[in-house]
Amino acid sequence: MRFPWQKSAAEMCPAMPAADAAHAIEVHGLRKTFGDFVAVNSVDFNVGHGEIFGFLGPNGSGKTTTIRMLCGVIAPTDGGARVMGYDVCSESERVRENIGYMSQKFSLFQDLTVDENLKFYAGVYGLSDEKFAERREYILTMADLHGRENEMTGDLSVGWKQRLALGCATIHEPKLIFLDEPTSGVDPMARRQFWELLHDLAASGVTLFVTTHYMDEATHCNRLAFIYRGDIIAEGTPNEVKGALMRDTILQVEVDDGEGALAALEGSPGIGEAYMQGSLVHVNIGERTAAEADLPGLLGELGFDVHSVEPVEPTLEDAFVHLVTRQKEASS
Amino acid sequence: MRRIYAIARKEFIHIVRDPRTMIAVLIMPLLQLFLFSYAVSFDVKDLPTALLDQDHTAISRQYVDALKQSNYFVVNQNLASASEIDGIFDANKARVVVVIGPGFGDAVAAGRAGAVQILIDGSEPNSAQLGQAYANGLSQIWGAKTAISRAEASGFNTAQAGGLSARTRIWYNPEGKSASYLVPGLIVLLIAVMTVQQTANTLVSEKEQGTFEQLVVSPIKRIELMIGKVMPWAVMAALNVITVSAIGLLVFQIPFRGSVVLFAVSSFLFVLCVLGLGLVISARASSTEVANQLAMMISFLPAFMLSGFVFPLANIPPVLQGISYLFPSRYMTVISRTVFLKGGGWDVLWPQVAALAVYAVVIITLSSLLYRERS
Questions:
Q1: Which residues of A fall within a CB distance of 8 Å from B3?
Q2: A residues 26-85 lying closer than 8 A (beta carbon) to B
Q3: Who among B211, B221, B375 is closest to A109 (CB)?
Q4: Does domain A249-313 have CATH number 3.30.530.20?
Q5: Class of domain A9-241
Q6: Cβ–Cβ gap B5/A74 under 8 Å
Q7: Is 0.90 surpassed by the pTM of this model?
Q8: Domains recognised in chain B with CATH numbers
Q9: CA B100 to chain centre
């Protein structure tokens, strides 16, 4: 049923190229606008079967909008995508049957027990009783929840909730799972355990599409795409992405007043980017050597007490700061 | 089916496990029923009454006795002079003051009309109006009785005399008991408020918790989600109809003169209508606060003001009468009162039942269309 003024799926969805069995996800010129705001600006990328694909970007850059289009929840403004071979626009129901989805909110019902949550999602995905018994056993083992089946979900620790949420999202054994910031707000220990689970899933042939803003987690991914203000500004393996900084030198500076030093450096000539990395300042000095840049001298003149300056191996975070800065300069 | 069942089961667990919902659903309607039936009584009885007898004759005392014997007035003060009357009203010591002027007894004895002045505190319009009517009635009856006994005493055969006497009888609710007309209307009000409120919240709260996000990426269809979510509330509404009616019949002794089947069918249609209204709100409201306010606007106000529950629909302005047709409560209130008190059947109530059926189809269709829309 639909209102007369609502378009049918066929009218709404642009024609898509034929499915390519090699890819779990194929994205062709996918675009979404909300009024004048371009949330996702005609992006293209592919994700192979069994890959852990990292989809990175700052908040508000279009990550969640992209995921929602790929899950068939919102329709693209233009372009389209195939997920597990199905058009996300015209075959969104098929798409939803074949994917798992887990968000940072761990969509669990807090006032239901562990078992009731599992049973609910088993019902939603139409599992038979035998299948449910088998999956329940598997998930309880995977999430280390044996003996807690009748505990209220709201009383579980965050790590347990997170693993239960993963269990519920994968109760129907999807071959592709979208994970939207699955580790935000979880302690480092639980995060590591969680990534071990994800690696196990990937090893069994499941494709994982993960968004995160923890750069250390990005290194777990086989491939990355970095989205910034609706555009994908880098794509490739972690090493390929870091390659953008191949010729640049990054210096790590330990100084008393990090924030002050940062402000002073940002305006100085010859400094590519400067930013905080924990309590330390990272400075990109471009293709010059540390001696040429002479940060201790520069900062000393400005009255900062510099403890140490040493060159470091560029990290993914260094690469992204560089890419974002370059993108900002290009668009201004 | 499996998916609808999964949703309905989960929804039941939410309801049963949340004490606030359980209280709101099962205890509140009963509480309101008792509150409305006992506190909001339109019966006027035992009006505190002050008396200023300036006549002091045997006849004036007879009149005062008649006043005292009625259930409507309690004479609790005797005033000495007219100057005290203002003070009595201001201090809320009496709602009615009866003044028997000097010469009352002489006038009655002489066969003329005796004059009694009745002062009524108009600040409480309902008791003022009824008090006035009772006092007038009482005085007329007493006057007539006195006249008749006087005539008979003088050898006049009153049975053969002409003249007109109006005999008023109130049908269906002869004692004029408030509970009898309140409870059937109240059932409608309580069902409307509870059902609209709860269904309006059901999806919105899921959106706020973030669990909605998970459901929309599952293969579940909106229509399945909708049916699964309202099913428990339909059951709750049915339970409420039964408990409130039972208490009305057993505790308040209101009659049930009509067809149980007719009442059950109309109740079912009415519940569908209010579920539909709740779902329309749920599809559109952005937060639980908005949903609650809209639910109040759409359920309580029309069911209270525009259903004939309190104010007779014929007496409200034409514009509001027109608006009242847009809400299902007005049809159900008529059905409920007719079935409970008058025993009317399908032959008289079919227009209301048909209206509810059409309303249910339209509103459920509308809400499922609203749910289907994608952003």
A1: 123-124, 126
A2: 71-75
A3: B211
A4: no
A5: alpha beta
A6: no
A7: no
A8: 8-40+178-372 (no CATH), 47-160 (3.40.1710)
A9: 38
